[in-house]
Amino acid sequence: MNAPNRFELYVLDEGEAPVEVNEDTKIPNAATIKILKQDHTLGNMLRAQLLSMPEVLFAGYKVPHPLHPHFLLKIQTDGTKAPDLILSDACNQLIGTLSSLEAKFKREFAFKETDSSGGAGVTGGTFATSDDPYGTGAGTGGGASWGNRDDYLDF
Amino acid sequence: MTSTSNSPSLIGSVFERKPSIPKPPSSSSQSRFTSTLNSKTGFPPVQHRSQKSSAFLKNIENGRRKPELSSERSAQVPSIVPQSATPGPGPSTVPSQNQKQNGVGSTDDWRSHVSAENEARVQAMTEEERADETREILERFGPSVSEILRRARENRERNKDVKFTSLEEVPFTSEREPLASPIGLPGSQLVSSLSRSSSRASTRPSSPNSPSRASRKLRFAELGPDQVHVYPSAPSSPKKALLALPPPDEDSNAVSLGTFKGRMKPIDLEDVTASQTHVEEGTAEIQVEQVEEGTTEIQVEQIEKGTAETQVEQVEEGTAEYIRQKYFPSAPADNPDLAWMSSSLDSSPHEQTPDLRFDLNGMPIPSSKILSLPTHLGLHHHAEGTRAGYTLDDIFLLTRSTVRAQRAAMLEVLVGVTRWLRTSDTKEDVDIEAARKSLLNLPNPEGSGTPPLLKRILFAGLEALPERGAVGVRAMDVVWECIVGQTNVTEDLGDLEFEFGGMEEGKTDEGGLITALPLADVLPQFLSLLLSPPDSDLGDERLSTSTLNQPESRSLRTTPAQQQILSILTRLARYSNAYAETIVQEKGLIEGLLRVFIIPPATSTYASIPDLATIRLLTILASASRTNAEALCQKIGAGDVLLRFVVLSTNDNVLVEIMLFYTILARYGMYSRVAADAKEVWWKIGDHVVALSSSYSQSNTRLVRAYVGLIEAWLICATDPHRTTPSHELLWSQVKSWEWGAGLASLLTKCSRLAVERMDTGENSIRIDVSTSASLWRSLGAYLEGAKLNGIRGGEEERTEVGLVLKRVFDSGAVRTFRNLIQDFKTKLQTMGMEMKTTVAFREIASSASILSSAIRLWLGCCPPSPSDGSLPFELPFADISDLCALLVRHDLWHLDLHPLLIRPLSTLLVLFLRLSPHLPGSHPDLWLAQAFGVIKALRRGDEEYALQIISQILDILTSEWAAQRGGVGAPDFVWKEKGGLKAVLIPFLRYEINPEREPYTYVAPLFPSTRSTGMCTTLRIPSSHHRDVTTEWRPLGLPLHSDWTLSPFNHLLRSGSDYSVFKQSGALPDSWDASEIDIVRAALALAMVEREVLQRFAPLMISLVGPKGEDIVFACMKVFMLEHDVGNGDSKTHYNGEGLQEVFRDEVVARQLHEILEPYTVKALFSSSTLYVPSSRSSSAPLELASLPLLGTAVPFYQFYTDFLSLYDSISFSHPIFSRLLLPPTSMLYAADYRKLLWNDYSHVLRGLRVEVDDVIAGAGGIEQWLYPVETAPDVLGAFLRALIKYGEGLQGFLRLLAVHHVAANIWPDFYVDAHIEEIVFDERRNKLLRVVIEQGGMEVVKDVLRYRQSPQLRRILCSPACFQEVDESCKRLRCDLIANWIGEGTLERVRGVFER
């Protein structure tokens, strides 16, 4: 069988850098960042986080080949911040979001353990509001009411 | 002894045997065994193991020594009587069995008795008497009588055996049981047991003395005969088995036909019985049956005698009932099998299906007459009730009748039916006409059993084809009518067909009859029918009445059926090249044709005329393919079958046909040796032609043209002898010495003098005259071209020679004739737009074009190879020709479905004009380029050679110097120079586009054959035009070129994995070719830019017709963006610097080129060209989807391409400006809502980065109106618009913001509608909701924009940002305020009133 070893999908080789940043010479404030041993999970998340940031003009990623465990992230900013810095900002924000999500999740579980009767409904509601694909709910402020879609989508 | 051996013990076998033990005498091996045992040596004899008597044998012997046992068993034999006692239908019952056995015995007795008597008599005779008798016998019967008698005796002996064995089987066959029932199955009935064979064996003369056959039969086991049972397996005599029908079951509802009153029944009449038994006793058994018949007759007579007197007359005499009562009193009264006898009057006219019924001529009988036609017309034999005529099912059934006359008659009806189906007669009954249509259009979906009617008819004919006599003849009629048909005659172009090279008539196959023909089976049948036609013995009656051919051209040797075969073959050969090849490859068919139609019988003394149609068929076959021509050369050339007619025949028609055939062969470069072999003959014919040309007549001109055409073809062969097969058959030196050039020139002088004389008689005859001269011009042109290559000093001498003649011929009068011709041509072209289908006019156009191109060819031939002092060889109306060609290129006949053969002269004229153009005064390379771009689009299949020439000439001109002089036409200098310039980079792609690899490989010869085509072409015929349908998969389709052919290399890059890509063709790319993807894209874009620039400058009228369309350009640019992988083996790998492959669109040059090539389609350019907003008629179809069809095929929708395009943009674009602009065209309202949904909903996150100003939008002719109207109504797209507005607010800019605001506002405010149904749509739940969401959730700017946005169709122009947000007139303001107050409330109105106030 020619299938590559499963661990090759997530274990870095000897001396391999997990992240390569290439400044684009022709386009201002643009960079292509190659992230190794990662796939759509991280790529899509990062792209969404970047797109939600006002400094970012363009953010996109692609997986050049499904059998090669890396993706290319392309970032262009408006010049106030360098692409690599904005990426690290995005990562920090993502980590924050995820840890708060984790905390919320654990808290809800704690509630559920103490109060087994009403816990299920509360958990469901929490997840429904945080289910925003590109994380824009917090930025615009109108997101909360936006979630209530049936006021005009009902036609 | 016998008691001990009774038990089958081993000990028994140890007993020593005594020699006195009786031995079985029948077996030879055993007799040998006994003889060894009897040897006198005293020692036990040496015995081989195999010869020792086995336990088995001993058992048998033991069994033999138990006679009491075997007799006891044989007594238990199951009797056969009970089994066959049940009355069966066959004649084999117990009495018969017994009688037969008795008969056997009695026969022997009788014979022995007679022979004994004879012997006694012979004994009593004296010697003299005996000698006398012998002499008498010998005298009476001849000397061989003894031999005969001996044989008779042998026969008798043998017959005895046969008879008896066959008779033995009788009981088996009378068995009712199913055959082969396995032994032991319950219910399986015993047929017979072998024990019976003991009794039978005694009657066997072959082994009368065999001790016991039963014992031998039971060799393999110790079984009594009653233990062996024979069950019916397979009847040993199949004949009898067929007769043996089981009797009907008791409870089945079978109807008796009466009882057999033969011998099987006990016979009451004693006198008959007596005679019968008497006869039976004396005869052999075979005769018994005959006697039976005899007795039944007697019996019937007896019955008749007995009953006739006593019968009371009750019913009318002669009726069926009368007969029944009189003769068959035991038969039931109402036997349904006899229903046909009852008169039709009393049968009630039950409801019948309204089937179409045909008379004997194959014409449908109108429903009004069906019931009233008299019966003597013969139409009532299969009528239901009183209806006359035959239904189709009747006819098909009866075509398989065993009565030959019936079969023949019905086949003739089918001929009529076919003819009727094919002719549409408006005068006919409406119902019948409708029925005809429905029959013709009888759908043939896969799976439904019945094939279309015409196919059924065809196959009914084919089925009867091998029959002899009338059936075969009629079957041939049916097949002929189906395949060829009198009403199905295709348009005949005459000799013109071969002048233009011919065409496969693929699409004329009506109802798929020809494709349905199983050629592999039918052709051998045709051959055998050809050699022995079914009507060969019908006499001269049919021959004289046949109307198949012209009476004078038919030779009397052939029959109509042969002629029909010939015309069927001709039709097949015309149908397609593949069929033509099959015909030629059919073994013996061509030879058969030659023998039947062409080679005169050896007995005929006079020079007979070969069949013209056959030579025509040969010509068609040869024109179909090179392999055919080769095969025909071998078959005909060896014996020079045709040449003898050239020599001997005085018939001009024969000569013409044969010369046409030779012309076709010479176009493949074959058989040109006949020109040298028979040069005296051709001289003679040349003289003949010259003599004829002085007097005008239709046939004379035909001969002249054929001759001149043949000379032209041979001249081309001689020009380059390497190209002929075999090479060097005809040399230029020979041509020179035969003075063909001078001959042609003198012929031309004569012809044109004649033409001048006849100038005033009428226009049409002039055209014919001129076209005769035109073929002369072509020949002379070929001569001069050849001289240019082969003559001394480029053929200068020849040129001056011919030039002198031409100067005289092409005087001012000739120029005037040309002018008239061109004028006529132009008017015809202009009127042709309206009534396109008049082929007569189109034929005239074609012949005019052919005349003009011949003149141009001659003119070009007169031009010296090197540009000279500018003196023109002779005068032609150059300006008129130029105008005409410009008109022709622009004409829309290229897009119409016209006869492809007749288009060929037009495209050839354009090509020749293109060759002429540089020689004209005032020519310019750029002008020539413009013309070339125009002409190359007009070329069709068969013009590949021209197209390749033109394309390489175009690319030759486009050098870096050329570009530098014109400011670099959209590409920097290095693009024109690098990698060998445009030509080297692009020529493999374009060459392949023009002439893609086809399966099978075809090279259609151009209209004017060249030396190249002589050596290369595989066929002379162009395919019929119906092949150009949309494919499911991308592949280059060849000529005619697609309008974006300059950008076609992109397709090869994108589809580099496809089998049809040029990258997959071995040898298509030269070894030195090393262009990279970027090089190719640059070069192709440069070429497209050149085309546009040149056309714009020199032929602005043509650009919309010839150049690529807007959507083609847009789609091609999309393709450039989709190119992300390196395909060429160029240097873009070096750009790899860790971030993946360099995208093509990042290249600066490419980006600039893309920008420039898209420039004319932007809104800015549209506004600058026409400032008025004109509501264009909106085409409902999506132009890009159509433009993408050649690349994507029908298998991949454009939507999928767009999805990939968008996701590519999403991942790698960095918001590339041109990339962004290209995203928008498919989201206009011309396209389905899915495209907008994809961009605005699924990929809404890219909207923020998508910055496209209104001016930069790539719009079609309709401008941005295409995006704004009709107003979007799809709810999910509308929701996406609204969401984008609210979510991104100010982030959404430019054109996108305009779009979103427009559609949202238009769905809120009712004043966007011009139409008067405002009151209907004023209040709407959706408007209310939309407005509420905008006001409550939108940001300040969004609310302001939506509330103030206006766009009024009355303004005749789309208002863009900011104009559309500025002024709101009073009435509109009031309306909107009211609506807000009504829908949401006064409070909200107060909040937003400021927006309107400003």
UniProtKB/TrEMBL annotation, chain A:
Highest rank taxon of the organism: Eukaryota
Q: Which CDD domains match?
A: RNAP_II_RPB11
Write down what this protein is called. DNA-directed RNA polymerase
Q: Where in the cell is it found?
A: Nucleus
Q: Which InterPro entries match?
A: RBP11, RBP11-like, RBP11-like_dimer, Rpo11-like
Q: Where is the DNA-directed RNA polymerase RBP11-like dimerisation domain?
A: 30-102
In which family does this protein belong, per the annotation? Belongs to the archaeal Rpo11/eukaryotic RPB11/RPC19 RNA polymerase subunit family.
Instruction: Name one cellular component (GO) term.
Output: DNA-directed RNA polymerase complex
Note the Pfam families from the entry.
RNA_pol_L_2 (PF13656)
Q: What is its main location?
A: nucleus
HAMAP family the record matches:
RNApol_arch_Rpo11
Q: Which UniProt keywords apply?
A: DNA-directed RNA polymerase, Nucleus, Transcription
Q: Which residues form the signal peptide?
A: none
Which Gene3D superfamilies does UniProt cross-reference here?
Answer: RNA polymerase, RBP11-like subunit
TrEMBL record, chain B:
Residue ranges of region Disordered?
Answer: 1-250
InterPro entries attached here? RPAP1/Rba50 (IPR039913), RPAP1_C (IPR013929), RPAP1_N (IPR013930), TPR_RPAP1/MINIYO-like (IPR057989)
Domain RPAP1/MINIYO-like TPR repeats spans what residues?
1197-1305
Stretches of Basic and acidic residues bias are at 61-71, 108-120, 148-163
Q: Which residues form a coiled coil?
A: none
First-listed, main subcellular location of the protein, grouped into a coarse class:
nucleus
Q: Where is the RPAP1 N-terminal domain?
A: 114-157
Keyword annotations: Nucleus, Transcription
Q: Name one Pfam family in it.
A: TPR_RPAP1
For this UniProt entry, which residues form the secretion signal?
Answer: none
The family assignment reads: Belongs to the RPAP1 family.
What is the protein's given name?
RNA polymerase II-associated protein 1 C-terminal domain-containing protein
This chain's source organism reads Lentinula lateritia
